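seq as requested:
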Amino acid sequence: MKTITLSEAAYERLKAWKTGGDSFSQVVLRMVPKRGTFGDLEDAFRTLSKVSAEHSHTMVETIASRGEP
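struct tokens:
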């Protein structure tokens, strides 16, 4: 076990990804792929849970706000 320091903004962003009884460690392990090859990255994406409607909406709004195709 390690103690880390996060800014308030980083804490809130991490907290937003918690579901059910997730610990912060579980969120980090689920959302942050291990460093390695593109194959490792692809494997990590396959293990991600489906994006909630709320997160999906936020992603669409963010992309649209950039004004890029």
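The two ends are 44 Å apart (CA to CA).
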